[in-house]
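Extracellular solute-binding protein
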Amino acid sequence: MRPHRPRAATPLALALSSAVLLAGCGVLPGGDERRTVTVWLMRGSASAEFVERFTEDFEKEHEDIELDVRVQEWTGIGAKVKKALKERDGDGPDVIEVGNTQVAQYVDEGGLYDLTLESARDLGMDDWLPGLAEPGRYNGAQYGIPWYAANRVVIYNKDLFAKAGITRPPRTREEWIADTQKLNTGGNQGIYLAGQDWYTLSGFIWDEGGDLAKETKESSGDWRGTLHTPEALRGMAFYQRLQALGRGPRDADEEHPAQSGVFARGDVAQIIAVPGAARAIEEKNPGLKGKLGYFPIPGKKAGKPGAVFTGGSDLVVPERGDDHEGAVDVIAALAGKKWQTDLARTMNYVPNKAKLAPAVAGEAGVAAMAVGAANGRATPNSPRWAAVEADNPIKGYMTAVLTGGDPATHAREASRKITRALNLGGL
């Protein structure tokens, strides 16, 4: 049994002080001292009100556990997590929220607890969204438990759609192209798509059966860039067609300039973004309130949305943590139906299982996001993928193609750069 640990009076701890007092001052009848389970959550992932509700409910259900929830900043979190995983610290975390694509890196460097048994037995792993579950799995073992997801949708201007005679969102890629051509008239842009929006390109490549990189042998750690494959080149060809139906810059990404600001001018029919971008659009142009619609990125065939990059968070347990049992209890609750539903409604996230999507059916943008999440993917599950993104050759490849370069030639060069980055400079 683990003794109660004194904790610093963080703002979140103060916010939760009433719940702690109601729990009986940390002592159970009979004199048994309560165990403290420390949870690191990232700023912005859950509201203080959600954390308070969860803490009070969890401590009522688990009378021998007191929760110590500590909010962490995203800036510098990688080094802080690595330190926590390597050093045994009686005041360290028992549960950590990490970005879904970060799990492989932490596993590779050592220090995560294998949750495969609990995932299969208690946590319903067969129903998890693939874009969260797959990056949490490494060398056949499950280390990251899906918590919440977010992905891109198409945000559109309802007035411009109506003026073009478009009465419903497109259901296939070809319908999308045809509608966007109708919208790209009279000074309006059919779509604003920046030339280096590589997350969107990734979805088109996945739809064609391609990928950004592949591991050459199971568990070998030997990776090869695959942008030059026929499937990936078809994905880039579709991106070219769509990007040409607007005036997005061919040498910049969606944040330079911020596409929400461009859309807010009122002459852009569509952008591809997370639904939360609508808030920024409406702040810049209040006249667009009530005039924004959402639909999932269309796929090649009706009835199946296009593939999308799934962002979000997984929950992990340090191998050196003091209370694995308590940590699993916390994760089981946070990843379970009750608190998944609460979190999704509170924060406008996609729940970790497709069957929980009805929880957000009342929010049009989140509902569209949930449809797309069912066909979500993550970046290649290499512990060195961050090295690719640090000097991203995919962006340069896209610009080269969009400005008239030969796709096969530039794709092969970008693949070589990805291969070098994923294999510590090897070819």
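thats it. Residues 407-422 form the longest helix (16 residues). Residues 11-150+310-377 form a domain with the D-Maltodextrin-Binding Protein; domain 2 fold (CATH 3.40.190.10). bye
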